[in-house]
Amino acid sequence: MNINATLLVQALSFAFLIWFTVKFIWPPLNRAIDERNKRIADGLAAAERGKAALVEAERKGESAMKEARERASGVLGDSEKRGAQIVEEARNEAKAEADRLVAAAREQIASELAKAKTELREQVAALAVAGAEKILQREVDARAHADMLGKLKAQL
Amino acid sequence: MAAQADITPTDYITHHLTNLRVTVGEGGFWTLNLDSIIMGWAVGLVGLGLIWMVARGATAGVPGRLQSFIEMFFEFVDGTVRDVFPGSRAFLGPLALTIFTWVFMMNLMDLIPIDWVALGSEVVNHHILGNPSHSAYWKAVPSTDLNTTFAMSFSVLFLIIFFSFKAKGAGGFVHELFTAPFGANPLLWIPNFGLNVIELLAKPVSLGMRLFGNMYAGELIFMLLGLLGMLAGLTVGGLLAGGAGILFTWAWAVFHILIILLQAFIFMVLSVVYIAMAQEHH
């Protein structure tokens, strides 16, 4: 174990190796690790933000759903009401129409009846006159007996 | 060459404990342990090169398995430094990474069986390079060489002083050398200074000696267990010795995994602690 000039050479070797590490090894490794750490930190922050956004979106979706449900039920109620109303209106209209038709029919029947009655009366009067003529064997002066005929018509 | 019959235990141990030396100039101090230098460079380049390759292609996106592993290691080192030093880690971080990686890679060579290393060095020296001598020294673990560990720990001392200057200025540093810890009374300047010098020097010496001692002792135990293998033979005692050698070597290697990691970690943490302390004001 004698100390000799090897010491100087080894010191130079050591110095060279230190220089090499300072210059070429440490900086790139340090940079890569720092950059990855930063990326990981960014990623974690982004994930955190994403999670918050997800919660927010879920909350929004929930409220939108609730609103839609409320609106749908409102629409449904309205339409049911409206439907009932329409049915009611239709029923009323139909009833009115039916009433109107029935009334018209009655009126017509009544007028027909009156007409038939009038016709009948005329004919009865004529028949009566004709009958009387036959009985009297002569002509009845319609004008002369108009009074009587009128009474007869009124009796019928 | 454990395989050769004419080798004594002393030869075996000595061989494994000797560096491959080359003298430059007048010799003496001017000698280089080629194996420590070459192995130090090789494992440093392999270890840091692997990390560099990953770092170069590092993406901030989903990392691959290798990148994940390197990043785990990076964050372990970064976290350790952060616990000790609250300031900027632009230099202390890479310093800690370098220390841990390099020391660990050097220590890892301790797990290569020593006889394989010896065999490899003989093959290279004798058969490839054509050197007539069979005996080629090659210590595969640079951290069992005090030169390597002291080179690192005294570099750390240099950094301690550098960062002290940076944090306190030259005046502040000198002021603290003479006035801490006892006080500013001129009578206390000499004791203060003496204590501070001892404290400063104790740091790199303990740092370097600890790593060297642990690795050297670990290597030595592998060698002693290897000697058991030399006794192996087709006798009852020989079989026992061989079996014990294999078993204990295996057990020690498993335990050694812990030691090499621990020593790398200790060297890294203490270096960072010392440099962090140097920036504090007393």
Description:
By secondary structure, chain A is an all-alpha fold. Chain A is about 90% helix and about 0% strand. Chain A starts with 5 loop residues before the first helix and ends with a helix. Chain A has helices at about 5-135, 145-155. Chain B is an all-alpha fold. Chain B has a domain at about 65-130 and about 140-170 and about 210-280: Four Helix Bundle (Hemerythrin (Met), subunit A), CATH 1.20.120. In chain B, strands 1-2 form a two-stranded antiparallel ribbon. In chain B, helix 6 (about 145-180) packs antiparallel against helix 7 (about 190-230) and helix 6 (about 145-180) packs parallel to helix 8 (about 235-280). The longest helix of chain B is centred in the last third of the chain and has 43 residues, at about 235-280. Chain B starts with 8 loop residues before the first helix and ends with a helix. The interface of A and B includes residues 1, 5, 13 and 26 of A.
Strands, helices and their partners?
The complex is a heterodimer of chains A (156) and B (282).
Chain A: H1 6-136, H2 146-155
Chain B: H1 9-17, E1 21-23, E2 31-33, H2 34-56, H3 65-84, H4 92-108, H5 114-128, H6 146-179, H7 189-230, H8 236-278
Antiparallel strand pairs in B: 1-2
List its salient traits:
heterodimer, A: 156 residues, mainly alpha, 90% helix, rod-shaped, B: 282 residues, Four Helix Bundle (Hemerythrin (Met), subunit A), two-stranded antiparallel ribbon, 2 strands, 72% helix
Report the mean per-residue pLDDT of chain B as an integer. 86
How many strands in all of chain A?
A: 0
Q: Summarize the amount of helix of chain A as a percent range.
A: over 70%
- Specify the biggest β-sheet of chain A: none
Quickly give the CATH architecture of the domain at 65-129 and 141-168 and 208-278 in chain B: Up-down Bundle
The biggest chain-chain interface is: A-B, 31 and 50 residues
Mean pLDDT of chain A: 89
CATH class of the domain at 65-129 and 141-168 and 208-278 in chain B: Mainly Alpha
